[in-house]
Each structure stands twice: as C-alpha cells, then as structure tokens.
Metallopeptidase family protein
Amino acid sequence: MLQAPWNAKIYRNRHGRGMRTPMFGTRLPRYRTRAGLFDDLVAAHLRRLAAAWPELIRPVQFMVEDVPPSDPAPWEEEPSLGSRCFPAGRGVPARIVLYRLPLQTHAHDREELEWAIRDELVLRLAELYGRRPEEIDPDFEW
C-alpha cells in the first residue's frame, strides 16, 4: 500500500544514501551528559566512602537533584546551596541530597567538581552523625 511521502517513516540519512547512525559511539566520553557525569562522580565517591565506612553509608539514602528548593528547612540556620542533610525519623531513613547545578556552576573543571562533591558528601555525613569531617575522610581539609 502506498503512503504519502510525509507519512512515510524515514530510515535513511538526509541524502538518502545510508542508514542513520549515531554521530559517535556510546562508549566514547562525549556520549555522557553532564548530568550523567555528575552521577558517576557521586557514585564513585560513595563507593570509596562505603569501602571505608560501610556502617555509616549503608543506612543513608543519597539523591541528586538539579537545583535546591527555594524554602530552607526549619532547622537550618544558613541553607547550603550544594547539598542538604535530612535526619532519619518516623520510619524514613536519613537522606543526603546533592544539588547538581550549583556544584557544577562553581566548579571550573572536572577535578574541581570531584573535590566539591567529595567535600559536600563528607560534610553532610559528618553533620548527620555528629562527627568531625576529618574522622570520615582523613584527607579532608577545610
């Protein structure tokens, strides 16, 4: 059955010579988005911390959101734009939320972003457990 050209599905490139393919392979670094790269960095730091402190990391939920909400929590004197810590209560486990866009905006390169993510995770874990950040990560410096 013939179809009108505007209803036909296009399976060839725009010159009509070959199949459409991705411009770069999925294993190449450019395939990752900035959000995906951020998630990978957070996961890498969590694996590193979980290897050292499994009893501290296991009961905590970690989340990544794009931007912080506009209203600070009632117990926060000065809200942090990089992350937030929510203690456990009423059957809800403790949570640490990292905010991707503020951290990416302040970092100039990937290495600086890695340090910012590490600092936020260590500071929030220390706040959650009432410890000094140096106890959680000996390499931590103010």
Q: What stands out?
A: The two ends are 71 Å apart (CA to CA).
